[in-house]
Amino acid sequence: MPGTPLPKMASRHRKSLALVAAAAAVPLVLAGCADNAKTPGSNASAGPIQVTSTKTECKVSTGSVPSGNLSFAVKNEGTEITEFYLLAEDGLRIVGEVENIGPGLTRNLVVTAPAGKYTTACKPGMQGDGIRSAFEVTDSGNKTAVDADFQKLADTGVQQYAAYVKDQTEQLVTGTKAFADAYAAGDTSKARELYAATRMHWERIEPVAESFGDLDPKLDAREADLEPGQEWTGWHRAEKDLFPPAGYTALTAAERAKIATQLVADTEELGKRTRTVELSADKLGNGAKELLDEVARGKVTGEEEIWSHTDLWDFQANVDGARIAFESLKPALTQKDAALAKSLDEKFSALQAELKKHATGDGFAYYNELSATEVQQLAALVDALGEPLSKLTSAVVL
Amino acid sequence: MSGCPFGGTSPEAPDGGTQADAVGSAPAAAPEPAVASDVGSPKRGLSRRGLLSLAGVGGAVAGLAAGYLSHDAVPAEAAPASTAGDVVPFYGERQAGIVTPAQDRLHMAAFDVTVEDRTAVIKLLKDWTAAAEAMTAARTTGRTGAVDGPYDAPPEDTGEAIDLAAGKLTLTFGFGPGLFEKDGKARFGLDGRRPDALIDLPRFPGDALQPERTGGDIVVQACADDPQVAVHAIRNLARIGFGKVRVRWSQLGFGRTSSTSRAQTTPRNLFGFKDGTANLKVEDGTLLDQHVWATAGSRSGEAWMAGGSYLVSRRIRMHIEIWDRTSLREQEGLIGRTKGAGAPLSGGEEFTAPDFGLKGRDGGPLIAVDSHVRLAHASQNDGVKMLRRGYNYTDGSDGLGHLDAGLFFIAFVKDPRTHYVPMQMAMAKSDKLALEYLKHTGSGLFAVPPGIKPGGFIGEGLFA
After folding, report:
1. Pick from A21, A274, A370, B149: CA 20 to 30 A from residue B166's CA?
2. How far is CA B381 from CA A238, B335, B373, B419, in A?
3. pLDDT over threshold 70, residue B42
4. With an 8 Å Cβ cutoff, is A345 touching chain B?
């Protein structure tokens, strides 16, 4: 707002916009040059809706707001853990919730809510139906472009991804048996050939596999990750034996057999457990983000496959897993944020095109064959994708 | 374009800084008589303030004489007001820079001793003592300082701290295992003098230590509110040491990540979280004896460490780019505190004690079992506490488009075997934060001897 004299900020500390607005009722313009003073939703005055939860009360600062993105700042002024729910008119369907708010803490809930009647509820002590009030969202004219099918689209996406995880797990179990047989039998060239291709099934579902904290280190620990006294088993133990560094003493046949047997047993256990994993839209979104993290942290640097240098197989598999999670959510995401969906499509394509440059036959170039420039190019595309991908979860579950 | 004026101040608003901003940045209007704490004399070196007024008196003789002038005889001119408040006394029962309220900036350097001559090492430590005492009192090093030596000789002091105040500079010295032994053989006649607590740190899971950032025979921690003062100190010590020691690694740090006094607010690390809320504070007298100050040990050969401490340094790279893509829910869950106030997730305010037993909706504790706060907390580590004194760092980039940034962790402990290793082992094993977002790239452990009395020198007890 050129030419408008602004009041002086009293404090030179950076405070969140919400705090400034709440504390001093300073005009929002003060948020300044950072972002044209965009406000959440169309609620151009008050910042978040203040909710105060005590043992006996659930105070909501307003009972009626215009539709759009609603932001609740829920402060627990009681002595027990509390929760806050925004429920649909039936008082059953949960539109949004925040749990586990410790005494004295404030937590924000941001939801997209079309015009209609709602119910707010605090649950001090996490018990019962909670302390409820009627809450109304009026039509602001800003259409929240979410139709009733949204939930169905999201649910379908989650089911699709669950099927993908099941399929990859089955292929992993089958492939691991073939690899283990070759390895235990001392057929080094066959085991080497199967190593990277089989691991791809693991890498595609890595966030799910890693959620089993006891199995992950047994199956996928690198030598650098080991604790003192920890027995080293799993894929990377075999890797070092199959792609030995200079001066390495090979395992005996008995030792190989032991590694192979355990690899199969642990993988079968993993397969059993994935059948009961409960997936949800936020898990898909976070899983996709974690797969890109894995690439940025371990694959781009060549630390994952330090002896075999088959990092690009893992890299491709992580990207596959992230892309499938994204595509499962894409119909739902398109309703909420079409621009983000389009951007993610483009970024996945760009990264895939770059990976393809390093494909050979049915595999990839070894990572130590890539030039520094090529590695940098991959890293840049991973970051370019990772940043918008990190917004997927909130875009879908908001 | 919002048409917002720069800085968001209105055209009508008065321009420029506040009164407070002028301190230390603009020349004082009127020359003030110098004030400095007078410790130990006679002193070498010239006051850095008013140095320029001496220049032009001419010749080395004036310079030499001036070295012995008291501060008050040197008129200050166009210099920042250096007050006793920004000089931390160098001499004392303990070395400064441990419980001294943490300054804003760090420059730490570890040196390898390149000679095998005991006399040379003692001489170096004496020269370092003199230079350190001078610099912490805002004087130049050497007899002739930065500009008052012979015209055909390089100046003794490197000069970049001319006009700068003391900036609360502290210089803290420690000895690494390599000073005592090399290739299994004792050095400098220090057979049997290596304290039992000065262990070789074990390998922790996930360690990615780089040899060029790890170890060292002698460490010097320079802390000051002005980075130029800290760098000047390390640079001049390194210069004095040429031919006897060489810099093995050095580290700049900013934005102290710990408060060591209740008078200081808790600063934030590069994850954006308050760091060091539960830190030991200078006010915790008896706790310092329990957790920070070393004892005489069990053998006569280690008695020289009584009243000293052990310095653990770890260069911890943070994967900040990945962290920044992590939801607030997960960030707070991993740390175990809220990002804004720094309150434990079990509730309350920043300094409320965490309640590790409090269970949430899913039956799991509000402060997760693999959260950073829980794993580092004294209650999970046999009541052990540390005095942390770390700094943030950024050292350029990694060549893959990411900042090489993180935490330069520094802790002073009574005994690393009980006060550091078990906690770090637990963290490296189960701290989800450490597993996903941190990487230890440098490491050091040093025996920090007790303080120095006027006329004494650093490590005197060790070489006695």
Report:
1. B149
2. 36, 17, 12, 9
3. no
4. no
Residue B107 vs residues A8, A222, B271: alpha-carbon distances, Å: 37, 34, 22
The span from the CA of B308 to the CA of B92, in Å, is 12
> How would residue A182 be classed by pLDDT, with cut points 50, 70 and 90?
very high
| Beta-sheet pairing, B309-318 with B245-253 | unpaired
A379 neighbourhood in chain B, CB within 8 Å: 400-402
Name the amino acid, one letter, at A39: T
> What is chain A's length?
398
Q: Could you tell me the CA-to-CA distances from B342 to A73, A81, B93, B439 in Å, in that order? A: 17, 18, 35, 23
CA distance A339 to chain B (A): 19
B432 in contact with A, Cβ within 8 Å: no
Contacts of A297 in chain B (CB under 8 A): 319, 322, 436
Statement: residue B182 has pLDDT above 50: yes
What pLDDT does B273 receive?
Answer: 96
Q: Which residues of A touch B326 (CB under 8 A)?
A: 289, 390
Three-state secondary-structure class, residue B279: coil
CA atoms of A296 and A279, how far apart (whole Å): 24
Are B381 and B422 within 8 A, CB to CB?
Answer: yes
Q: How far apart are CA B374 and CA B335, in angstroms?
A: 9
Beta-sheet pairing, A68-76 with A49-53: parallel
Chain A closest-CA separation from residue B339 CA (Å): 11
Taking CA atoms, what residue in A is nearest to B346? A102
Whether B425 contacts chain A with CB within 8 A: yes
What residues 281-320 of chain B have any CB closer than 8 A to a CB of chain A? 319
Q: How far is CA B219 from the centre of its chain?
A: 11
State how far the Cα of B50 lies from the Cα of B104, in Å rounded to an integer.
26
Bridge partners for B446 per DSSP: B311
pLDDT-based confidence at residue A201 (cuts at 50, 70, 90)? very high
Q: Give B 138-197 residues with CB within 8 A of chain A.
A: none
Residue B75: exposure state from Cβ atoms within 10 A (0-12, 13-18, ≥19) = middle
Structure token pair of residue B120: 């040379």
For residue range B442-455, list pLDDT tens digits in order: 999 999 999 999 99
Measured in whole angstroms, the distance separating CA B229 from the mean position of its chain's CA atoms is 13
Contacts made by residues A164-169, CB under 8 angstroms, sequence distance 24+? A164/A205, A164/A324, A164/A328, A165/A205, A165/A208, A165/A274, A165/A277, A165/A279, A166/A274, A166/A275, A168/A201, A168/A204, A168/A205, A169/A201, A169/A205, A169/A270, A169/A271, A169/A274
Distance of CA A112 to the CA centre of its chain: 20
The predicted-structure confidence for B125-160, as pLDDT tens digits, reads as follows 999 999 999 999 999 999 999 999 999 999 999 999
Query: In chain A, what is the greatest distance between 2 CA atoms, to the nearest angstrom?
Result: 82
Q: Concatenate the DSSP letters of all residues of B357-414 into one string.
A: T-B-TTSSBSS-TT-HHHHHSGGGTTT---EE--EEEEEEE-SSS-EEEEEEEEEEES
Helix (H) or strand (E) holding A179: helix A150-184
Q: Considering all CA atoms of chain B, what is the largest pairwise distance in Å, rounded to the nearest integer?
A: 80
Helix (H) or strand (E) holding A384: helix A372-389
Q: Which residues contact B423 (CB under 8 A, 6 or more apart)?
A: B375, B376, B381, B384, B386
Tell me the two tokens of residue B386. 């540390």
